[in-house]
Amino acid sequence: MNRRELLKALGATTAGIALLPQLNAMGYFAPAELSKSAFGDDFLWGVATAAYQIEGGHNADGKGPSVWDTFSHGKKNIKTGENGDVSCDFYHSYAQDIDFIRQMNMQVFRFSTAWSRILPQGTGAVNQKGLDFYNKVIDTCLEKGLQPWLTTYHWDIPQALQDKGGWTNRDVLSWYNEYVEVITKAYGDRVKNWMVMNEPLAFTAIGYLLGIHAPGKTGFKNFIPAAHHTTLCQAEGGRIIRRNVKDANIGTTFSCSSIEPFKGKDVHAKTVERWDAMVNRLFIEPALGMGYPMESLPAIKKVEKYMQPGDEEKMKFDFDFIGVQNYTREIARANFIIPYMKGLQVPAKRRHVETTEMGWEVYPEGIYKVLKKFAAYPNVKKIYVTENGCAFPDVVENGRVHDAKRVQFFKDYLAQVLRAKNEGVNVQGYFVWTLMDNFEWAEGYKTRFGLVHVDFKTQQRIMKDSGLWFKEFLAD
Ligand code: FCB
């Protein structure tokens, strides 16, 4: 039964009226018709990208290798055997690609700088041509009336630094500081919106605990120091931006998922708490001055070995905003054989729910739940949805891509963002993952998330129906 039918059936009966608050909470009164104006004039719309996923030009003009260059060339690391050497070739086609953002009537281009393009060895000599590339990207945005939003780190630490341990080596604090000093001084006159990290949990857990992403390391002995040094850099990056960039709007982003108990049963509550601490709380709470969530996640106590006097203080930073990135929800199930987490996530495919090509559950209400959750922290001042999107198998037919499922995905998720906003969550913008199909890390090019379709053989672009939908939705 759809919303209208339900309301009609309930009519004005006493029982129906009694149900209204509950239905409201369930989102039944979210506007049937979404509109740009419902989000308000100040709400920002944009797209998000990451350097390694789109740029290509992997050794162009003096760029040094990053962990992803090395990892993607390693045997069997990428499911499809592909790499990011060329990818969308954004390194050469940035002007045309940035123009698509304008065409879609968006205002924000979120991108990251590749550390090893600017400092090929990670520290020391600066590569002027690398610096100039982002000058051109930034200037192109400004010429087209777009706001450049810069992420300092989206998972591509220089290989030269990984050779010394990468994020597991505490020296990463000084390496990272040097890099952020360079980019803030170079771009801070024109870039006012900064994000320190992209999803710290994702790159430390998938890259240093599970070994599925670069640099392919495994175990708590790698994960815990990598996580702690990332937490310190997260705050220190914020301080450097504050010092070097006048009038900066400073944030950092997190992967956020609603974690819920298997079949809604209480027996899984502790497991839910542990997964929630790992997935949602591990990196934000130290920044907010709450320390690591050790009570909920005893495994994280191992971090004490890597903590030095004064670290508690150094982990804090008063961010202007938090970037919430949401893709799915997780269902947790207790299982005491599993070390540390004492439970597992039940894959969406086994739960027979609708999924994207990544195998992630389509669960629009999840974005509402995580927005409410993050907004509930007293020191979170404002939120942007810095990533949300989906991969579906797209087909080109007569020069068009009719990605109806993606259009529906955005409609449903946006309705839930609006629901949170209408309930008082200070969410001020929404950035789609992603501008165009690109190198989806260990999945290769198969999983397409773009609003613009990319033919990786010819580099031809086609705006998908979802891109056209945004164009129309955002038209004045
Ligand atoms: C996010 C990453 C982004 C992209 C999407 C699908 O976790 O930040 O780079 O891979 O997932």
Quick summary:
It is built from 17 helices and 15 strands. It is an alpha/beta fold and 476 residues long.
Please give a structural write-up.
By secondary structure, the protein is of the alpha/beta class. It folds into 2 domains: 1-30, no CATH class; 45-473, Alpha-Beta Barrel (TIM Barrel), CATH 3.20.20.80. It is 38% helix and 15% strand. It has helices at 3-10, 14-25, 51-54, 67-73, 90-103, 115-118, 128-143, 159-162, 172-187, 200-208, 220-244, 269-281, 284-287, 311-314, 365-375, 404-422, 465-473, and strands spanning 44-48, 108-112, 147-153, 193-197, 249-255, 258-261, 321-326, 329-334, 343-345, 383-388, 396-397, 400-401, 427-433, 452-455, 460-463. The strands form 4 sheets. An 8-stranded parallel barrel has the order 1-2-3-4-5-7-10-13, surrounded by 5 helices. Strands 6-8-9 form a 3-stranded mixed sheet. Strands 11-12 form a two-stranded antiparallel ribbon. Helix 15 packs parallel to helix 16. The longest helix is centred in the middle third of the chain and has 25 residues, at 220-244. The radius of gyration is 22 Å and the shape is globular. The model has no long low-confidence stretch (mean pLDDT 95). It binds beta-D-fucopyranose.
Please state roughly what percent of the residues sit in beta strands, choosing from under 5%, 5-15%, 15-25%, 25-35%, 35-45% or over 45%: 15-25%
CATH topology assignment of the largest domain: TIM Barrel
Uncertain runs: none
- According to CATH, the homologous superfamily of the largest domain is Glycosidases
